[in-house]
Input
Amino acid sequence: MGTEHFQMDLCRSGAVEYLAFPAFQAYPFVRHAFSTRIGGISRNEFSSMNLAFGRGDPKENVLENYRRFCSAAGFDFASLVSSAQDHHTVIRRVGRRDCGLGFWKTQDRKSVDGLITDEPGVTLVTHYADCVPVFLVDPIRRAVGLVHAGWRGTAAKIGAAAVTAMAREFGSRPQDLAAGIGPSIGPCCFEVDRPVRDAFAALTELHPEGFIRADGNGKYHIDLWEANRRILLESGLSERRITVAGICTRCHSELLFSHRASGGKRGGLAAFMAVKEDV
Output
């Protein structure tokens, strides 16, 4: 993947490749990463860094992939906390007591598409295969958030829900927050029918003509990156503090799992974010 026009760097540690925002280097207390397909032990359609449970890849393979990824990208495997995604807008504050949820501990809640924390040594993990990851950093309160924004979550403004939750839980001010909109299906490839188009057209306060393109014959293309960017701007974030990766998972399915590119025969990607313990 040529990365000359993208806003994330492709990093390599041993056999593992992952993506990271250069813009987040300004926040040395934060560790973050977005996985690729490269560097794991899974085979066939899961090849090779599959980080999705429950799709047919043996659980021991997925856990070993997490161990290898954590070692390569600098995360403590014992600190992982997973979301419980179902395309809604629930944001959950987690801490050390929650480490292991979704991995070696059974999830204790349903419907959690966003995670926030201000505790060092807690690694937030959310899951993807075309949906939009939104990374949030509060450099003043030293807090972080990760949001899974599928088209339903985006249309329901889950990014705004996360900003509100960080304000409530940590006293975060929206104007202090920095955001990264990570790899997902891009405006080039996200073709939808009229009902999905209508869900976005209803967001009139965001001027949806800027992220909806009519193709004719009842088909439309939606720019989920721009929709999420406008939701963050409406929530009070500064334009200069929002970075859009610009990486389409479907266009780069050799590097990134894409549900649409594979017809559903695929593994999964994950976003990781933590407040470092030693900074």
The radius of gyration is 17 Å. Helices lie at 59-73, 151-155, 158-170, 194-201, 224-234, 259-262. Residues 59-73 form the longest helix (15 residues). The mean pLDDT is 97.
